[in-house]
Specification:
Elements (H helix, E strand, L loop, with lengths): L9 E6 L3 H12 L5 E7 L3 E3 L4 H6 L8 E3 H8 L2 E4 L4 E3 L4 E3 L6 E2 L2 E4 L13 H4 E3 L3 H12 L5 E6 L3 H16 L4 E6 L10 H13 L2 E4 L4 E4 L3 E4 L4 E3 L2 E4 L16 E2 L2 E4 L10 E3 L4 E3 L8 H18 L16 E4 L5 E5 L2 E5 H19 L17 H5 L14 H9 L9 E2 L7 E5 L2 E11 L5 H18 L3 E12 L3 H21 L3 E10 L3 E10 L14 E4 L5 H9 L5 H11 L4 H6 L5 E4 L4 H13 L2 E4 L10 H6 L7 H7 L21 E5 L4 H10 L5 E7 L3 E4 L2
Parallel strand pairs: 1-2, 1-9, 2-5, 9-20, 10-17, 11-12, 11-17, 12-13, 19-21, 28-29, 33-36
Antiparallel strand pairs: 3-4, 6-7, 7-8, 14-15, 15-16, 18-19, 22-23, 23-24, 25-26, 26-27, 27-30, 28-30, 31-34, 31-35, 32-34, 33-35
Helix pairs in contact: 1-3, 1-8, 12-13, 14-15
Length: about 725
Amino acid sequence: MHHPPLPLTRDLVLIGGGHTHALLLRKWGMNPLPGARVTVINPGPTAPYSGMLPGFVAGHYLREELEIDLVRLARFAGARVILGAVSGIDTDRREVHVPNRPPVAFDVASVNVGITSDMPALPGFSEHAVPAKPLGTFAAKWAEYLGGPGDASIAVIGGGVAGAELIMAMAFALRTKGRTAQLTLIDNSQALTATHPKSAVIVRKAMADLGIEVIEQASVSRITQDQVTLSDGRQIPASFVTGAAGAKPYDWIANTGLDLQDGFIRVNAQLQSSDPSIFAAGDCAHLNENPRPKAGVYAVREAPVLFDNLSAALGSGDLRRYEPQKDYLKLISLGGKSALGERLGTSFSGSLMWKWKNHIDQSFMNKFRNLPQMKPPALPREHAAGLTEAFGEKPMCGGCGAKVGRGALQTALADLPAPIRADVTPLPGDDAALLQTGGTRQVMTSDHLRSFLDDPVLMTRIASVHALGDIWAMGAQPQAATATIILPRMSPTLQRRTMAEVMATASDVIRDAGAEIVGGHSSMGDEMTIGFTLTGLCDAEPITLAGARPGDALILSKPLGSGVLMAAEMAGAARGEWVAAALAHMVQPQGKASEILAGAHAMTDVTGFGLAGHLLGITEASGCGATLNLEAVPAMDGAIELAARGVRSTLFDDNRAITPELPTGGKADLLFDPQTAGGLLAAIPVDQGQTICEALREAGYPAAIIGYMTEAPGLNIQS
């Protein structure tokens, strides 16, 4: 018997991608709670692992080695991921606020955002220094500085373990590069007070060996572009300044109304805040019953307890206590591949300790690099012939990758009778119809997308831009839209929340395009589908597929690759930063591009049938051919690499069959990649090509001239 997907009934929102939440998402992917919809909100697609930061700074690790890919992890966990920095929690309305999107509603929330080492009160810090946390920004700035020329001068403010590790790592990296460096560690009291005296002696010797000067009992009064001024008037040369002095909570936490301790969220032994539906873990939390220093080891140990307690708050199981350990092995990097280990007052140092620290860090990261392969449910043993083949070896793509092939669609359309109304103009091959209404030219189109993302807001934004593409491709101005929304099965509360997100977003995008939403229809099904029927007005003759002339330059306004990237993302094979960049391309509206391309002889939007299929439509309607310069065709980050690995959208084979004469392999495969909310493809008079392409780039489109129209029919690739 076929069982439909279980309804969604509760919203769990994870604020931040810290170590606790990362481990929780991994555990959730292996044992999800049926009925719970999980959302993780983080500023970027990755979350750096703090334990490996000194090793990265020293040059022992590449940047990607210390980053947890949250997009991939969220896909594994079945969670939606929202890329944005939280600006607040409204505890009364049960909403999380993220700039530039509707509020995110929750039944249960958890905060694991870490800390910042920003020092906004210190004159000159915001302008001339780089906080050591958040790690992502610091890592990028350090890589840039390390690769620079000339002598280096570094100052680290804060003489705790974090500051000492950082400056030793910097000293080692600069020495490895052969750059002369002046390095100063500044502390307003005594350095290394949190370590055992024996350990402090070892660390101080390591710093001295690396040429680091330690200045204690000194406060900083000002930071300028090339120096740090101390309150006693001393001036320390420093062209790179960072702060690792203590832990500062994020400012927005102060406005939540939750009970705080020095700005950190107070939690009980169950990791609950003063609001029992809001939990907190890691450095942003203060453990009421057992206060502990800020250390990643506690965040890691909290994960299994938080998993159980969030499940309990959502209605499954009982709350349990978190008992922090009294002491733990502190491992301190000493610059090179040497480390100090300290526990219960005993210290060991040397290369063996570094190997042990590296083993612990790599073991932690491997949990996210090597996510368990969860097997899909087996097909029924007894089934009709052909079911295995129809089901396929991989999940069906969403977006344009889920479309029916061009051949099947064209055959079905060809069998329809020709229009008999005088006010309907047939446009064979074009996606929109041309209507005459009282002397006004009006175009009409309909499009919908099967969701490939769990975020209704992002999916609505993409579906809106995608549907508007047919109007923009004809040089028309969007006029009105109706929405067709299918939601997965969910409780009435979640229906209201989801529809509010969808319609607020759709209204924003459609109105920004100059049109209005005038109605719609909604229903429930097995999965989310978002579509629109749109009308547009043409002041001039509409731009169709017919009209391109030999010699015309071909301009493409967006890069290719969304199909292969989304197929890889569904399989957990795409890097989060590639996915984030692809989504940014997909949500870019093409209204301004359509205006710039108003003089095109022919135009279409590149969507489900790929660049080759849509270009073939222009050549067939215009009665000429085209030659593409494959090298000039822009590609999204990661698309060529994934295509080379053999990653394909489910529509690839159908698209490939449209133009069997074209070569395959490598970048050529992207010509058959179905694009969702793809760019405009226009045939432009050749003498205007360069000017128009530059105007598109100035307007923010990564446009390129990718070929030209030819007398000879068919498509060719320029070698």
